[in-house]
Amino acid sequence: MSCFGGLMEEYKYISIDRFDGPNLSSSAFFLSHCHTDHMVGLASSKFLQTLESGKDIKLYVSDVTRGLLLADPRYVKLEKYIASLPLESSTIIQLNVEADQLCSVAVTLISAGHCPGSVMFLFEGEEGNVLYTGDFRFSKGTAKRIRSLHTFDKKKKDIKSIYVDTTFCTPNAVYIPSREESVSSLMTLIREWLAKDENNAIKLLLSAKYGYEFIFHELNKDMNCKIYCRRRNLYQCLKQTYSVLTENPDSARIFACMKMDKLDLVGEHLNFLSINLSTLYFTDQGLPEQICERISDNSYRYCFSFHSSYSEVCDFVKYVNPNNVYANVIPYSTASLEQAARELTLKCGLKLSANPTLKRSKYVHLQPGKVTNESGICKQGSVKRARSFDL
DNA sequence: GCGATCAGCT
DNA sequence: CACAGCTGATCGC
């Protein structure tokens, strides 16, 4: 769950993944992907007023994110102000920072492998090269294949700061099965259950709106059937996914449902096997290859993650070799963003630059959805100060 | 009656 | 179990 407050130490005139409070003074906005903890304030009238101020303020997103936003009535009114940027190609953005002060920054979108449309943002300009990862899932070795992290002569770019998805930066999540491993095992179970009886059906319990599309596609290929999804209409911009889903429960044997959705209307005559897709927290005693857990005869829990494991995050951060590391997420069993950044830094064996300005950081990182006043104080008193770790 | 916000739940 | 999101209550306009 993102705790990023929206503002970075560098490029203070832009906001990313937060659209409320102090962020409303920003001159440009970036949305990394369509999960609600990254969209706080996006549907608010205050944010719309900011865009309508006539200062040419835009919301920059990937093409797919734009399509997903516009499929949701809450965001249609933002349409005029949404600018989609291409992947892996640097775009120079001019910004009206103050009344007569122009600033420019080059931004590159990097596909983040978290959910449809998800991207990282690489900013390059006077404040140095800064990488905001958003949420991501990269397997080991992905970083060296990302062109925009390299110069034309294939040398690594110098990265001043990285703002990292530290969701699973905890010793319990050093290893998480790949999506392929998860889905392959999942399909065996589903195949067997469906073959047993023609009234047998599958209920996939999901906890996020987007991020499970890989499963839908693999199941569709393997079982040659469409997957029921109440929210199929949100996928209109993704023809492939749209085509493997159905809104008609009568024709389906596999039902993808949000955990809190009431499914009472669907398939009363069917004999359901429930599969809860969640990311297990692997304990020190747990077997790393453990993917599923049987809860009862007709209920399983399966590990499926759209965030990188701790070792995948380390592999990426080591490769990028930044001077400063900031955490965007407080991992389970970790006290603070600072601790998360410190531990990640140590684990990656990074040598950080001593930068005195960072010690005076006033940039608050917030718990999502808890802003109650203009000064950005959380209701629960959980204001987090962002700071990189100086060795 | 509407939108915004929040507690509670999964 | 903890990846994020929905429902329903309440408040203010």
List keywords for this structure.
DNA-binding; seven-stranded mixed beta sheet; six-stranded mixed beta sheet; alpha/beta
Would you give an account of this structure?
The chain is of the alpha/beta class. 20% of the residues lie in helices and 23% in strands. It contains eight helices and 19 strands. The strands form four sheets. Strands 12-11-13-10-14-16-15 form a seven-stranded mixed beta sheet. It has a six-stranded mixed beta sheet with strand order 5-6-7-8-9-17. Strands 1-2-3-4 form a four-stranded parallel beta sheet. Strand 6 and strand 7 form a beta hairpin. Helix 3 crosses helix 4. The chain binds a DNA duplex (10 and 13 nucleotides) through strand 14.
Question: Strands, helices and their partners?
Answer:
Blueprint: E1 14-16, E2 28-30, H1 45-51, E3 59-62, H2 63-70, E4 82-85, E5 91-98, E6 101-111, E7 119-124, E8 130-132, E9 161-164, H3 179-196, E10 200-206, H4 213-223, E11 227-229, H5 239-244, E12 245-246, E13 254-258, E14 271-278, E15 292-296, E16 299-303, H6 310-320, E17 324-327, H7 337-348, H8 356-359, E18 364-365, E19 384-385
Parallel strand pairs: 1-2, 2-3, 3-4, 8-9, 9-17, 10-13, 10-14, 11-12, 11-13, 14-16
Antiparallel strand pairs: 5-6, 6-7, 7-8, 15-16, 18-19
Helix pairs in contact: 3-4
The structure holds a DNA duplex (10 and 13 nucleotides).
